[in-house]
Design a protein that fits this description.
heterodimer; A: alpha/beta; Rossmann fold; 9-stranded mixed sheet; B: 473 residues; Amino acid/polyamine transporter I; 3-stranded antiparallel sheet; 3 strands; 68% helix
Chain lengths: 248, 473
């Protein structure tokens, strides 16, 4: 079962919509409740004060995702740096994707973005497992300057999904600003699937592309992680550190 | 929060018991039963806390005062301070890697030597940091007045204290309400300061050694004899208090087994070298008598001597940044040390409440900020510095004693990643040197320090006599 991380700013009342809960049914969901603290506050101090309240909320959320059936769990983290926390937990859980929750009703139409240097194979197999035999329409979207190559890679991905029994259509945006084109295309869809891209100068200046899409499109964004270069950290995280040994 | 761990027992006068839970420490997080605490401070961040806290005092405030007391031999005073700091930083590093928790020195001593020693040190550390911060703020006030003077607005030294108090109040309010991440800013400030200093000291060093510029007439090295070297070492030891501040954030340090020792020992060595070179350059430029007349901001004239108006401006600007970053880093560690004692039921739990609106520990920050303002208003630079050193030196000495106590009878959980070289000589020397340095202080500072310790001991017997902490991780 594919694992997906759902990070929620739990003490700020962030929650998930019913549409997302239903959409993620085929996945093993880890609800990552996090609380970002200013540097004046030691995380342990916040834990003493807020742990019980956060745990109650997380238990309820995890139950919605099927904790009782064994398809969901939760973790609670107090941190100064949420990006670092997401990366660490995702690596430890070996989760393939994470969700930016957004809000949506029932998901009937899914937009899958293949733009740029992303792991198309992994996105396609993620979508296959996510949709399964449910009646959810999939639109493959690609923004490019090279119409011919773009068309080809869209076709190839569409064929794979079609063979798996999904309803697929494709949408190609040529010579348009990629992000704006994606947000326009998202208008008649309920949720977006996209790949995580390596950090670039652009993302350093304007923020992560995925976050910007999520902010513009209201609905949930599922981000397939770019794990190729992260297997090392995942292994390191699983190794017990020397201080674990005598702790009991 | 109802269930407390069976590993601690005893309650304070209000019926609160220490909140200690079993945890698993990894390089990236602390894992408790139900939650994880991310470790987010790297080696750079740790060095920035250590260097950022220390550099303000040693370079920008003390050269004039120290040269006035000991002549060019003040360089030796700073070197003695560095050696003492290193002798303590090594044992402190071992304890910090064994117990990477918030609270630093307080935590080691309460676990190694018991609740009474822990309470005295923990509460004294709070006051020690308060004295140190007040001292940094007064230094800041002097630089603020000098900055105005460089800009052509002469306001005179009577504005030093009002400016210092105003900024102290501003810092406290910013710390309660500010949620943006100032850590990156702190790293940048420290990097900028180090660059200014390396350029300035590099040029000044070459000049003073007679390689460039006119040779200066060498002054007698120790015009007042050896005793002033030692008393000056006691005075300027305040410039080495920062490495202990690194230990107060030990619970948030990434890869603590590696980064804590490197940050603590590294920051002491870096600032120690810079201090000694600074004194050499400063006394070569102007002579110690002239430096003494110039007082707290003597370095500005040293900058003018070597590099003209640009040099003076660079030093004034650096001094503002450095004293500000020292004060800010100290306010942060003060609130962490208050949290550490309140978690262990040595202070009311209320002290570690977090403000719901800003997410900051407003009670602890207020308990730091209030006394800081009162002390800043006194404007007694030397007294503030010495009392701060006194209270820290007691803690340093006891850190070394705690290390020896723990090593002689190692508990099961005691498994430091870093072991101090030269055990037991290094910690024994560290303890002796720390206590000895106290002996060279002014009687007034010793009395105030002692009085604070007695009050904290009295508080322990009144409030938390039944709390047991020794040996509980």
């Amino acid at each position: 079962m594919t694992r997906i991380l759902v990070p929620l700013a739990i003490l700020e009342g962030e929650s998930v919509s019913a549409g997302l809960t239903t959409l993620l049914e085929p996945m093993y969901v880890t609800v990552l409740g996090y609380h970002v603290l200013p540097e004046q506050t030691p995380p342990d101090q916040a834990r003493l004060q807020f742990e019980d309240r956060a745990t109650d909320a997380l238990e309820d959320l995890a139950a919605e995702f099927g904790a009782d059936e064994g398809t969901a769990d939760y973790r609670l983290v107090f941190t100064h740096n949420k990006k670092q926390t997401f990366d660490r937990v995702a690596a430890e859980m070996r989760s393939d994707a994470y969700a930016i929750p957004g809000t949506t009703g029932p998901v009937d139409q899914l937009l899958v973005a293949l733009t740029g240097d992303v792991a198309v194979d992994r996105i396609v197999s993620f979508v296959t497992e996510l949709v399964g035999d449910r009646d959810i329409g999939v639109t493959l979207f690609l923004a490019t300057d090279d119409e011919h190559a773009g068309q080809e890679s869209l076709e190839a991905a569409a064929v794979t999904l079609f063979d798996a029994g999904l309803h697929v259509r494709t949408e190609l945006a040529v010579d348009e600003p990629p992000l704006e084109a994606l947000v326009d295309a998202a208008a008649d869809h309920d949720a977006i699937v996209m790949g995580e891209r390596a950090p670039s100068l652009r993302s350093l200046i304007f923020g992560e592309e995925t976050e910007r899409v999520a902010a513009e499109s209201v609905g949930p964004v599922l981000v397939v992680r770019n794990t190729a270069d992260r297997d090392d950290t995942a292994d390191a995280a699983d190794q017990p550190s020397p201080s674990d040994v005598d702790d009991s | 929060m109802g269930d407390t761990s069976p590993s601690t027992d005893g309650t304070n006068i209000e019926g609160e018991s220490p909140q200690v839970e079993p945890t698993i420490e990894t390089d990236e997080a602390t894992i408790t039963d139900d939650a994880e605490l991310e470790r987010t401070i790297g080696l750079t961040g740790g060095l920035a806390i250590g260097i950022g806290t220390m550099i303000g005092a040693g370079i920008f405030v003390f050269p004039g005062l120290a040269a006035g007391n000991a002549g060019p031999a003040a360089a030796a005073s700073f070197a003695i301070g560095a050696v003492v700091a290193l002798l303590v930083a090594l044992p402190a590093s071992e304890l910090a890697t064994a117990m990477p928790k918030s609270g630093g020195g307080y935590y080691f001593i309460s676990r190694g030597l018991g609740t009474l020693a822990g309470a005295v040190v923990g509460l004294s550390l709070w006051f020690g940091l308060v004295f140190a911060t007040a001292f940094y703020l007064v230094g800041f006030g002097f630089y603020a007045v000098d900055t105005l003077a460089e800009l052509g607005i002469a306001v005179g030294n009577e504005l030093v204290i009002p400016i210092a108090v105003l900024f102290g109040a501003g810092f406290t309010v910013l710390n309660v309400t500010g949620t943006e991440n100032a850590a990156k800013l702190q790293n940048g400030i420290v990097a900028l300061l180090l660059s200014i200093l390396v350029v300035f000291l590099g040029y000044g060093g070459l000049d003073a050694a007679g390689i460039v510029g006119d040779p200066s007439a060498p002054e007698q090295f120790a015009p007042f004899g050896t005793m002033p070297i030692l008393t000056t070492a006691a005075l300027v030891f305040t410039s080495y208090l920062g490495f202990a501040q690194v230990a107060t954030v030990a619970g948030e340090m990434k890869d603590p087994g590696r980064n804590l020792p490197l940050a603590m020992v590294g920051s002491v060595i870096i600032v120690g070298v810079l201090y000694v070179v600074t004194i050499f350059v400063a006394t070569s430029a102007l002579g110690s008598e002239r430096l003494a007349e110039l007082g707290e901001t003597a370095m500005v004239e040293v900058g003018r001597h070597y590099l003209g108006a640009a040099g003076a401006f660079a030093i004034v600007f650096g001094g503002l940044l450095a004293t500000m970053s020292s004060a800010n880093a100290s306010v942060l560690s003060t609130s962490r040390s208050i949290y550490a004692v309140s978690r262990d039921a040595l202070l009311p739990k209320r002290a570690s409440r977090i403000n719901l609106r800003y997410g900051t520990p407003h009670v602890a920050l207020g308990m730091a900020g209030g006394p800081i303002l009162v002390l800043t208003a006194t404007g007694q630079v030397e007294l503030l510095a010495e009392v701060a050193s006194f209270l820290h030196l007691i803690m340093y000495g006891l850190i070394c004693v705690a290390l020896i106590a723990l090593r002689r009878n190692e508990p099961d959980w005691y498994d430091p990643d870093f072991r101090v070289p030269g055990y037991p000589i290094v910690p024994a020397l560290g303890a002796l040197a720390s206590f000895a340095l106290i002996g060279f202080m002014q009687p007034a500072s010793q009395l105030i320090g002692l009085a604070i310790m007695l009050v904290t001991a009295g508080w322990y017997f009144y409030y938390a006599r039944d709390v047991t902490l020794k040996g509980k991780l």
